[in-house]
Amino acid sequence: MSVQDQRLLEPMQRWSHVTMMEGPISTSFSLSVLVPVYNERYLVEPSLRRLLALQDPIIHSMEVIVVDDCSTDGSREILQQIASEDDRVVLLRHERNMGKGAALRTALEKATGEISIVHDSDLEYNPADIPLLLKPFATESADAVFGSRYLSSHYRRALMFRHTLSNKALTFLANIFTDLNLSDIETCYKAIRTPLFQSIPLRHNDFRFEIEIAFKLAKRRARIFEAPISYLARSYQEGKKIGHKDIWLALSAILHFWFIDDIYKEDQYGSQILASLEKARRFNLWMGQTLAPYVGDRVLEIGSGIGTLTGQFIPRELYLASDINPSYLSYLRSYSVGKPYLRVRHIDAGVPGDFASTEGQFDTVLMVNVLEHVPNEQITLENIKSSLMPGGRAVILVPQHPALYGTLDHALDHRERYTPQSLRQGLEQAGFQVERIFDFNRFSVPGWWFNGKVLKRKTFSPVQLKVLQMLMPVLRRLDPILPWGGLSLIAVATKPQA
């Protein structure tokens, strides 16, 4: 590693790269255990007592968030007694029965641990397995770990055949639509990094939660692992609540969550809107191919998102992916595991201090759909220029046509839409030499005008995006001959040698 690379690496908040070697776990976590309870008076106390007795070096603190889903059998009084005895127990209550998914949503709002895990209150699952579920977070930088009742272990109890067959069929279908290879999608034990868990909108109140969270984690490109767990199945006579109706609901959920991309809660970064654009895979591939001739070997990407372009341009001698969205940064850090050339860092394009130690380190700064968001364009351009070597290039994509500014731009927090003249003027004022400015994506102009100026939409239609994806091969060929300017402008500008 060069001295310059060492200078760049020191201030970074590097994600801990890991090895596949077995060894003592040196990382411990704060844990939030989410426990939905409904009419379990005979089992809930031993279940919680066993959970509260759990001790392991990988757990440095634990909170147990119990949601009484309007029990009517005396469970509430038992829960109140346990909560009064142990200050680690947070007791919440629904005034009407709403279902497992709703109870977990309520519990998750109060979770403060680094990792949250779902625990049922019926003694079917053993808390002694929880440390094994946490191990991949320490050794593999996992985003989520599912406890599997069917993975190989030293021993496994023979389970109900029909129930097992139904579960395996659901898991098989879910794997087809998510392109995962899970062995047990209906497992209760799902451990997920809390910020990631809290950023996902959970819509269903019932047992469809199991399908929903698996699909949304897959669409968020989370690093999902499985770990073997024990399972003490109870019969329907003993109070098992999931039934044949839930199988049909799960099947409908598989189709629903395959088609609907509802994977981000609304936030200040517009994640839910940007995520829909990132699903246009062929469009993003076209964009990457257009930018690729101008990308060098040492790249700083401002506003990497979930790595839509990053994945097209690596490996490189050095690639620094940056963003300000915590959800995106978390994904990028997981994505960087096993890629020593790929580094991840929080960089706000408008904050000079965020560029500390990057001075003169890169031959390319790539900034796509960022400049229109920053409050001070000149500070941002001066920041990226400081990161470039003499002769290095800034490759910048911005929205074009001020007359198109509408509700979509407002929802995306666009400060303005550019003209070639205003973009050139800003670059030259910052001291860049402009090599070229050219149009990109002419065919989307009518659609943007219609959605943002006529229909006044604030998001993109999933149907329109799927049609765009389907027609991309034809639209790419038509694009150069369309008689109007592109929806976007691409500028290639050079930092002077002197």
Automatic annotation (TrEMBL):
<dbReference type="GO" id="GO:0016740">
    <property type="term" value="F:transferase activity"/>
</dbReference>
<dbReference type="Pfam" id="PF13489">
    <property type="entry name" value="Methyltransf_23"/>
</dbReference>
<protein>
    <submittedName>
        <fullName>Glycosyl transferase family 2</fullName>
    </submittedName>
</protein>
<feature type="domain" description="Glycosyltransferase 2-like">
    <location>
        <begin position="32"/>
        <end position="198"/>
    </location>
</feature>
<dbReference type="InterPro" id="IPR001173">
    <property type="entry name" value="Glyco_trans_2-like"/>
</dbReference>
<keyword id="KW-0808">Transferase</keyword>
<dbReference type="Pfam" id="PF00535">
    <property type="entry name" value="Glycos_transf_2"/>
</dbReference>
<dbReference type="InterPro" id="IPR029044">
    <property type="entry name" value="Nucleotide-diphossugar_trans"/>
</dbReference>
<dbReference type="InterPro" id="IPR029063">
    <property type="entry name" value="SAM-dependent_MTases_sf"/>
</dbReference>
<dbReference type="InterPro" id="IPR050256">
    <property type="entry name" value="Glycosyltransferase_2"/>
</dbReference>
